[in-house]
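Subject: design request, 339 residues
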């Protein structure tokens, strides 16, 4: 659960069970039952939906599934005319299949708050997208589900007029917004303090003097869209991963530890302000702490935590700095001025 491979793992597991099941199914059921089962068998990843005839005993199928793999066992419940498949509730009522929205008991309806930091069109389209989902899935009690949606959105700070305007679009006829051609899309990183003026772009397209450009951009409308700004996870992680790093990269990799830099003008390590090492120990709160370097550091390292030790009284100071060379030069200047 939660890992990137979970979806593929579940998909492969159920596919393995399916392959064994359909191969062994003709040995316990007649051909017409097998064909009916295969025709009405639907699956999305690890969620399976299928119809079954009440006059046919289902227990042999249950025993067959449990015999495929000893580590995968199924629990059998009584046959029912109602079942939940993904986010849809399917109910058989007088030989008519009815559909409704299904929510898990733990579902909290925590939709995005209207005053959160999102583009206005994104917030306004929440009611539109959720209402469209209700109309597409629910076969009965559509108005009741739309009223429940209104109630949940109002609790999240959405305005009733905005909700009604969005839901009214569900029943309005579709219009060709951009005439005959695709729009010109302008994408920028979303910032609540940054706004694109669509009118300026439209006037710029109309004021083109080149006949060739006029023909290219004729009847085209600008479309302003935003992309999500990078979050902390995207700043701290990278998608690239070297499964088999090249040999030359391993040979040129710098050794972990604190070492002198390659700048011949730097006097920090030459005057013993910096102690080259791969590990060190210090005492803090009557405890001995052993520190091992897991990266390469030198005088030019930036954005780090440093430990400074007095050679006279052996007191230590731990701080942070954005530039190690600049921080050590300042400390040296302060010491000289005090003396």
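Subject: RE: design request

Done. Sequence follows.
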């Amino acid at each position: 659960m939660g890992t990137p491979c979970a979806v593929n793992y579940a998909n492969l597991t159920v596919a393995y069970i399916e392959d064994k099941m359909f191969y062994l199914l003709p040995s316990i059921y007649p051909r017409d039952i097998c064909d009916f089962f295969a025709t009405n068998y639907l699956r999305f990843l690890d969620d399976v939906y299928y119809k079954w005839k009440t006059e046919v005993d289902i227990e042999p199928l249950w025993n067959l599934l449990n015999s495929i793999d000893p580590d995968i066992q199924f629990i059998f419940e009584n046959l029912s005319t109602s079942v939940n498949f993904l986010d849809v509730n399917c109910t058989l009522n007088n030989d008519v299949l009815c559909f409704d929205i299904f929510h898990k008991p733990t579902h909290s309806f925590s939709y995005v708050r209207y005053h959160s930091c999102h583009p206005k069109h994104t917030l306004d389209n929440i009611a539109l997208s959720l209402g469209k989902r209700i109309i597409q899935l629910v076969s009965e009690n559509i108005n009741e589900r739309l009223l429940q949606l209104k109630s949940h959105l109002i609790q999240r700070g959405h305005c009733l007029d905005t909700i009604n305007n969005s839901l009214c679009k569900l029943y309005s006829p579709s219009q060709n917004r951009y005439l005959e051609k695709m729009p010109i899309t302008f994408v920028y990183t979303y910032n609540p303090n940054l706004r694109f003026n669509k009118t300026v772009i439209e006037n710029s397209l109309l004021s083109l003097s080149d006949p060739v450009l006029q023909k290219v951009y004729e009847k085209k409308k600008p479309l302003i869209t935003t992309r999500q700004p990078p979050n902390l996870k995207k700043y701290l992680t990278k998608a690239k991963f070297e499964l088999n790093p090249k040999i030359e990269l391993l040979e040129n990799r710098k050794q972990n530890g604190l070492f002198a830099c390659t700048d011949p003008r730097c006097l920090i390590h030459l005057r013993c302000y910096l102690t080259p090492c791969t590990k060190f120990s210090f005492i803090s709160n009557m405890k001995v702490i052993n520190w091992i370097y897991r990266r390469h550091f030198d005088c030019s390292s930036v954005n780090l935590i440093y430990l400074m030790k007095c050679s006279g009284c052996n007191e230590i100071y731990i701080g942070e700095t954005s530039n190690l060379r600049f921080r050590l030069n300042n400390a040296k200047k302060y010491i000289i001025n005090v003396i």
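The two ends are 62 Å apart (CA to CA).
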